């Protein structure tokens, strides 16, 4: 049976298809220099960052423009365990899933779909990601000691996660219920010590009316995650990505890494974007209508001039199994922020709980004494 180390080496060698002009070895993308580097002779090849593809694409024409589809030099591998699909070079043989660690990997008939136009290259190296994991797991006392001793750090993989961004003009017709405060003078009788007393005070009332109107808003670069394989809470904990670091996608940035094929389609992503837009539209309407209280009754919105971009954002991912359960640990490949799930040691929890109870009991005895 092929060991994990052999599988990792095979995958790494297969993805490194850009040769070193000095020694002929396979080069890797180097986060430190932002270029390609040969691990054998340390020869470096700079990558010129360009920004020609930082353009909005027509949402209605998506999938029909062959210039924006992945080419035949890539193919899709699917994990039979977690369902993740990875886009790799056509010559690659994927031996394990970077998202769950499973070896149940097979080539699928799926085409890679819409190609990315922009990417944030990795800024954090694999060695830095290893160190961050070590610091992270050491800082969690309730993680099992066995996990800290047996975790295979070489299972960490660099993967580009897919995202969509959407632009859209919106025109909304709304109906709102508006309340305005007014005050009236009211006199009432109160009793103090059994004796009646007349009290006059100002009481606030609300006068309601209904009105309608139109509201326009332009949305720019609404970011929607196009992946379902990474734990959403973990991903939220390592955000944000600084989109100012986006550059044109080039195959050189993929050398030694992989890209996840989007599992949220462009159309599904736009529906998620609409949910975000609709809430902002409601907030905008409430803020634009004059009144002490504004309650939105109905909103009907038309979306026009919809455009999109396909982005790849960098993430170091480690999935490990402990007691037959999969846990994920991730590092933002741009900022270095970390987040992860880990099993709890019930023995440690029990010992700490017992210790706390003993301390409480001793304090109680001292107080009683």
Account of the protein in words:
The protein has 369 residues and is an alpha+beta fold. It has a domain at 4-164 and 222-270 and 312-359. 23% of the residues lie in helices and 38% in strands. The chain has 6 helices and 15 strands. It is flat. 31% of the residues are buried. The model is unreliable at 1-16 (pLDDT under 50).
Q: How are the secondary structure elements laid out?
A:
Layout: H1 4-15, E1 28-30, E2 35-37, E3 44-45, E4 57-58, E5 74-79, E6 85-89, E7 105-107, E8 118-119, H2 126-138, H3 145-150, E9 157-192, E10 195-225, H4 232-238, E11 247-248, E12 258-260, H5 266-288, E13 293-322, E14 325-332, E15 338-340, H6 346-368
Parallel strand pairs: 8-13, 9-12
Antiparallel strand pairs: 1-2, 2-3, 4-13, 5-6, 5-7, 6-12, 8-11, 9-10, 9-13, 13-14, 14-15
